[in-house]
Specification:
With 184 residues, the chain is mainly alpha-helical. It contains seven helices and no strands.
Length: 184
């Protein structure tokens, strides 16, 4: 989904999603075991938040919600998630302060993630709306996933493995994939 704008009907995309999810779960389970940690089970709202974070990262990379960051790498995603966590934790404490990221690109990705989360929350009935603590928990889950991808790739040639993982699960808009279908 980074290289090609596959339509949702693509059988190879569905196979890739299935195999990638299985491999990711196995690797993450092994890593957590080696670290002596237990996996955190996300509740329904937290899983929805993670999906929204996936969407924000993919849309930012693809340029669907502003100027694109086609060369986005996992380390920048990690830093943006870390910045978003700091800002939400500060906001939750009642202090009015905006933490700034190391670069404008990281700052922009962090801002887009938080803006998408806020927009998602506004679109949900008040009684079903996720709490800030759930948003922070989902962001920490994604930050840990980014850190795991970075660690797996230390010294490797794939600084975008998390981005590839995220992109695999976020469909392109239908209008972007329609030109790929070639009729005989």
């Amino acid at each position: 989904m980074i290289e090609l704008r596959c339509p949702e009907s693509c059988q190879y995309l569905n196979i890739a999603r299935s195999e990638t999810a299985q491999r990711e779960n196995e690797l993450r389970g092994k890593e957590l075991f080696e670290e002596g940690r237990m996996p955190h089970d996300l509740n329904r709202r937290e899983r929805g938040i993670v999906d929204e974070i996936f969407d924000a990262i993919a849309r930012t990379h693809r340029g669907l919600n502003g100027p694109g960051m086609g060369d986005l790498i996992d380390a920048e995603i990690f830093d943006a998630l870390e910045n978003a966590i700091k800002n939400l934790e500060t906001e939750t404490s009642g202090i009015i302060y905006e933490h700034h990221a190391a670069t404008p690109r990281i700052e922009e990705l962090s801002r887009r993630i938080r803006a998408d989360l806020d927009q998602m929350a506004r679109g949900i009935r008040a009684e079903d709306r996720p709490k800030r603590s759930e948003m922070i928990q989902a962001l920490k889950f994604m930050r840990d996933k980014a850190q795991a991808h970075i660690k797996r790739n230390e010294g490797g040639q794939e600084p975008r493995s998390l981005l590839r993982f995220v992109s695999l699960y976020v469909p392109w808009p239908e209008r972007e994939t329609s030109s790929l279908i070639i009729a005989p």
